[in-house]
């Protein structure tokens, strides 16, 4: 099982309710610079992070116990000296996100792939957590096995 936590999410939701979304006042919450989708596909979980404008060498993945940390740095674009920036709305800097992974996931076999601004992680379900069939024997079979 995959568990997500964001300690400020509830605060942002309450702030939006109190002050109202839109209406010219705006909200206190900022869009998450690292949105994700997560789903289960067969015997693995797939997590996809949107990281447009991030170079692959600027992405760090760490797993400690059951916490997966994704850290990415969006660096300023290289512009010639004679260029004057008119609008700069894209967030820059280091962003991080943590996911709490359930005990049933195999953190030793996480695979990561980055393509077209999307970081995709594949987290397999541990073998011991997969359902397995147990054979049932009858009482006559048990006596034959003991003899």
- The averaged pLDDT comes out at 80
In what order do the strands lie side by side in the largest sheet? 1-6-5-4
Summed up, the helix count is 2
Distance between the termini: 44 Å
**Shape field:** rod-shaped
Q: Report the portion of residues in β strands.
A: 25-35%
Architecture of the domain at 33-78 and 88-127 in CATH?
Sandwich
Radius of gyration: 23 Å
Query: And the CATH topology of the domain at 33-78 and 88-127?
Result: Immunoglobulin-like
Strand count, sense and barrel status of the largest sheet are: 4 strands, antiparallel
CATH class of the domain at 33-78 and 88-127 reads Mainly Beta
Indicate the structural class: mainly beta
Number of strands: 8
What pattern of helices and strands is seen along the backbone?
Answer: EHEEEEEEEH
Which residues form runs of ≥5 with pLDDT under 50? 20-29
Q: What fraction, in percent, of the residue positions are helical?
A: 10-25%
Pfam families: HSP20
Family: Belongs to the small heat shock protein (HSP20) family.
Protein name: HSP20 family protein
InterPro entries: A-crystallin/Hsp20_dom, HSP20-like_chaperone, Small_HSP
């Amino acid at each position: 099982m995959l568990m997500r936590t964001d300690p400020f999410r509830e605060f942002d939701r309450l702030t939006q309710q109190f002050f109202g979304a839109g209406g010219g006042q705006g909200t206190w919450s900022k869009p998450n610079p690292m949105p994700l989708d997560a789903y289960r596909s067969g015997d693995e979980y797939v997590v996809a992070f949107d990281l447009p404008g991030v170079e692959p060498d600027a992405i760090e993945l760490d797993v400690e116990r059951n916490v997966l940390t994704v850290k990415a740095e969006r660096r300023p674009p290289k512009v010639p000296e004679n260029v004057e920036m008119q609008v700069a709305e894209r967030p820059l800097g280091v962003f991080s996100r943590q996911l709490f992974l359930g005990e049933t996931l195999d953190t030793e076999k996480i695979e990561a792939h980055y393509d077209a601004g999307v970081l995709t992680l594949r987290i397999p379900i541990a073998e011991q957590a997969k359902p397995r069939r147990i054979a049932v024997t009858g009482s006559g079979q048990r006596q034959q096995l003991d003899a």
